[in-house]
């Protein structure tokens, strides 16, 4: 449902329809492929973890994706994280440790 809503919003808000459906260049295609493979790996890891009986820990760790995005933004784009953002990033692994 989330992908459908996102696609609908993208189509509704984009005024340049030709650019929306244009073929990506090799760099963009490679990045799309990499993102797709990493997403597949994440879903596969979630399924394997849920199948092993550690559903509570796997569910908590799956919420770390926002924290990973924040850390990558800090490392790669030199964005500054506030103290509250650092606390949020560190809370997820702490919660997994408490559950373990």
Identify the notable features of this structure and list them briefly.
single chain; 100 residues; mainly alpha; 6 helices; 79% helix
Architecture blueprint of SSEs:
Elements: H1 2-13, H2 17-20, H3 26-51, H4 55-62, H5 65-76, H6 83-99
Helix pairs in contact: 3-4, 4-6, 5-6
Structure overview:
The protein has six helices and no strands. With 100 residues, it is mostly helical. Helix 3 runs antiparallel to helix 4 (55-62), helix 4 runs antiparallel to helix 6 and helix 5 (65-76) packs across helix 6. The chain is extended, with a radius of gyration of 18 Å. The two termini are 32 Å apart. The model has no long low-confidence stretch (mean pLDDT 82).
Largest sheet: none
The amount of beta strand, in percent, is under 5%
Number of helices: 6
Shape: extended
H/E topology pattern: HHHHHH
Q: What gyration radius follows from the Cα positions, in whole Å?
A: 18 Å
Amino- and carboxy-terminal Cα gap = 32 Å
Number of strands: 0
Q: Would you identify the regions where 5 or more consecutive residues have pLDDT less than 50?
A: none
Structure described in brief:
This protein has 100 residues and is mainly α. The protein is built from 6 helices and no strands.
């Amino acid at each position: 449902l989330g992908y459908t809503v996102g696609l609908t919003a993208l189509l509704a808000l984009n005024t340049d329809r030709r650019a929306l459906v244009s073929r990506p260049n090799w760099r963009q295609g490679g990045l799309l492929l990499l993102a797709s493979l990493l997403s597949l790996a994440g879903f596969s890891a979630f399924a394997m973890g849920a199948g092993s009986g550690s559903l509570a820990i796997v569910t908590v760790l799956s919420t770390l994706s926002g924290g990973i995005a924040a850390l990558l933004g800090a490392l790669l784009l030199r964005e500054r994280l506030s103290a509250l953002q650092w606390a949020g990033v560190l809370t997820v692994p702490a919660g997994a440790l408490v559950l373990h």
